[in-house]
Amino acid sequence: MKVAEYASFPNVPFPMRFLEQEESWNLFRPKAFDKKVCPMKFDNVAKEVVKNCKELPLVISTVAGTLSGKRTLDEWWKVAQTVSSLVNLDDYQRCSGVLVLSYNHLPPHLKSCFLYFGVFPKAREISVKKLLRLWTAEGLLELKGLEEPEKLGSSLLQDLIDKSLVVVGEQSLDGKIKAYRIHDLLHDLCLGEAESENLLYVLNPPVSKGHQTVFPKGSRWVSLHSTRGYFSSIRFDDLMRSKTRSLHISFSISIDRLVLRLNHFKFLRVLDLEKVSCYDLPREIVQLSSLRYFSMMVCKITKDLSISKLWNLQTLVFRQSYRGASPPIILSNGIWEMSQLRHLQGMYLCSPPQLSANEVKYRALENLQSVSGLSSRCCTKEIFEGIKKVKKVQIFDMVHEICSKLKCLDNLICLHELEELSIEGYIYSFIRLPRLEFFPPNLTKLTVNNTRLPWKEMTIISKLPKLKVLQLKKYAFDMKIVWELTEMGFPELRFLLLEESTLVYWRAADDYFPCLERVVIRNCRYLHEIPQGFADSMTLQQIELHGCRPSLVTFVDRIQKEQLESSGSDMRKVYAFDTIRGN
């Protein structure tokens, strides 16, 4: 308690307490039963279980998650007996016992997916897209036929949420989950179970002033969590190398300080060096023909490096320390021979080679689902034809690569299956939106960031027929005082983010935004008012204001009151955070 008082000074720390019996029941019931109502036949056993959880929220939610998949009274009583056997233990032992119980009741395929959380450092939010790509690369997903790994992986993650083994972290504007967390005790369980099965070896040594040499055990997954100490080398014998399928280093370090000898890892599937930096991509990487997932922080790739030898690769991620200021990472034509690729990040693509000299048809990456960090210079018809089945694209307009063709985005029409598009500039962008007829026909999400587009191009965006999510981030459009919408537009838009804009007034006719559900305004320091027509909206459910003026908060509160007076019900929620001082 003294530590909490010191850390929170001058505020008083929030006192933690056990739950009351009714609170315990209200936490248990919706997690244990689909319809959030306890059937009569389960009433006695359910209340017995809740009683033996001893008002501990983690125990209650975890046991409820375990029971949510049980359909017979016998199964419930077996779990109840196990919980009852833990009742005389101290709180820590009871929590640990319940977590082991929940883990033991998982099906085998879900156990492996759960244990994989142990490769990540404790108390970190875990990116959903990264986790799903790692599960896929490790072969943890039991795919059937043409089933998409992302869909199956999302379903398994939902199972873990329902069982209260993972917690939802960051969410996107439209409510999709972007990151997860797990409780520290559950992380300890992951480590303990995975290490006991010789699946995982985690290196997290204490602080040391001297050099350290580490000899990981013969585990399938090896993960370095430590941000402390100095590693002179990491050595594996031949037996260890033959068993290691996954190597993760989760802290910032130069590859010059690591002696990995990667070319000896013949069966490595995952090489996650996202924070490990090097100037030239190590040549021995291309000898890892079993590799499915590879990420690293690099400056350049030697032109003669035969990257096509990584023919099993599904995910390729290159990060740069100073994105935009550094020259792009250029990939050779060999990238077009890597038919298993599903995700690419942070590189410059060369035009694909022609399939034959007699026809104008280019090699294509048929399985590619997402490309991010794509230079605006790569927005050619040939390249877009080569990635024509992609669903997500993020374009980055770099400072030293001013796009001479202002209409390069007209080639987006080649991407018929594109659903999400993000366009980001650096310092100043010369890129311009395509005409309406050149936008991909199935686009549902558009993010524009630091592009300083002319406001007249908003008319194009307003007419996109399937657009549901629009994010206008930092200086998406050039400086302007009034944004006035006078014609019908945004026919399907549900979610809108307006961030770091110079706008003072935002006005719109009543028939604008007919489907809008949520508006988020962030750090718009000059904005005084939003459309008055929001008071009459039948669809708008939530308005969030972050770092805005008090006058805007007052204006939005007035809109909420008008809606309450006219309809008799308060269906709209208004939230204001970090309101700035002044008028």
Automatic annotation (TrEMBL):
<keyword id="KW-0677">Repeat</keyword>
<protein>
    <submittedName>
        <fullName>Uncharacterized protein</fullName>
    </submittedName>
</protein>
<dbReference type="GO" id="GO:0043531">
    <property type="term" value="F:ADP binding"/>
</dbReference>
<feature type="domain" description="Disease resistance R13L4/SHOC-2-like LRR">
    <location>
        <begin position="262"/>
        <end position="522"/>
    </location>
</feature>
<keyword id="KW-0611">Plant defense</keyword>
<dbReference type="InterPro" id="IPR055414">
    <property type="entry name" value="LRR_R13L4/SHOC2-like"/>
</dbReference>
<keyword id="KW-0067">ATP-binding</keyword>
<feature type="domain" description="Disease resistance protein winged helix">
    <location>
        <begin position="119"/>
        <end position="190"/>
    </location>
</feature>
<dbReference type="InterPro" id="IPR042197">
    <property type="entry name" value="Apaf_helical"/>
</dbReference>
<dbReference type="InterPro" id="IPR036388">
    <property type="entry name" value="WH-like_DNA-bd_sf"/>
</dbReference>
<dbReference type="GO" id="GO:0005524">
    <property type="term" value="F:ATP binding"/>
</dbReference>
<keyword id="KW-0433">Leucine-rich repeat</keyword>
<keyword id="KW-0547">Nucleotide-binding</keyword>
<comment type="similarity">
    <text>Belongs to the disease resistance NB-LRR family.</text>
</comment>
<dbReference type="InterPro" id="IPR058922">
    <property type="entry name" value="WHD_DRP"/>
</dbReference>
<dbReference type="GO" id="GO:0006952">
    <property type="term" value="P:defense response"/>
</dbReference>
<dbReference type="InterPro" id="IPR027417">
    <property type="entry name" value="P-loop_NTPase"/>
</dbReference>
<dbReference type="Pfam" id="PF23559">
    <property type="entry name" value="WHD_DRP"/>
</dbReference>
<dbReference type="InterPro" id="IPR032675">
    <property type="entry name" value="LRR_dom_sf"/>
</dbReference>
<dbReference type="Pfam" id="PF23598">
    <property type="entry name" value="LRR_14"/>
</dbReference>
